[in-house]
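Onboarding guide, step 5: your first structure request.
Type a short instruction followed by the sequence, for example:

Predict the 3D structure of this protein.
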Amino acid sequence: MQEKLGDFSVTLGGRQYKPLMLGGMGVNISNADLVLAIEKLGGIAHLSDALLMDVADREFGTHYCQAKIRKFKRYLNDPDKSAVSFDLHDLAESTKLYISEVMKKKTGKGLVLINCMEKLTMNAAAETLKVRLNAALDAGIDGITMGAGLHLSSMRLIKDNARFREALLGIIVSSVRALKIFLQRAQQVERLPDYVVVEGPLAGGHLGFGDDWSQYNLEDIVRDVKKYLADNGMAQIPVFAAGGIFTGGDAVHMLRDVGADGVQVATRFTIAKECGLPDDVKQRYIDAKPEDVEVNHFSTTGYPMRMLKYSPAKASDIRPNCEAYGYLLSNGQCSYIKEWHARKGAKEEGLQVPEHTKCCLCTHMRNYKVWTCGATVSRLKETTVRLADGSWYLPTARQIYEDYMTSTAQHIAVARPEE
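The system replies with structure tokens like these:
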């Protein structure tokens, strides 16, 4: 009898869970509805802490972004955004509001984590990161997964929080080298991570690799990380494999043959009914072909990014919206600001306009115009059916989750409208 993912378990915080973790897709793509649907099934799911002031405004009718715009609107045409800052109290309050509302609805069957991205520098990297991390803990989140950076200071920034040793803390890495550096800092505050997520080169969104990403293999990195932990007395730390795990059979292979303790997935859930992506965008994801996927440098973070090549953001030339957002500012700049002002100046002087190579990532992610995706996005059409009106059926989170749990080999239980 073939093994199924549902036959396995992983231990976190002294409790056993099914070894499937939903990745934290921002901005509000891994939204409350999706995360709570998976938690209700006893699963592990991530929220994202990207642009939470804006998310709170949309979800709860607050006015954090409006207040920020009013305060800094005089810098709208200024290419130097050094003075544009976040109100740390508002940042903390919006984070706590969003997370606490989700945690109130949690059943207790599964885990609700949040993905905290170090690359959200927010014009004051250390100060804003400290607020986001501590506010998440104060709001009662089950755990924090630290991603998009090495997080060398993150453990220190929360070591005095009352929940520092109670909440689950994890780190996303793409190499043993990155894990070693993080662990050296973590050991200084005597707090090891509770789990490690190894994100390989086939993941969606920002990649932890350079332009040579295709030369790396998730299985090799997972084996290296498992060996390093075992050789250094940390074999008890679970390792989740992420990137390109499309079927229950893929997941079982990672656990049984490669040695991972669990898997993190996302692409399959982008088209779930509960997912925060607009339904018309979900249809574009399902329609995608292999040749529609590219890894490019349109992100202002400096990381390569996997996305659909016809994402609307690529053709946009909107004004930088730092007064409202500005989550990627560093010392008053991001690469899009420089490019936009150079293009504007060239147009005004009748000169050749520089090539459009970056996008206003904050604004376009907020508006679902950057269609980041995993390498397997073109396979989504294998998982569902067309309806009479020509659109694709959008499966529920439960249908997707249960398929991962019960399918074997490369079998996929095609989702159909439920009776």
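Each response can be followed by summary notes, for example: The chain has 13 helices and 13 strands.
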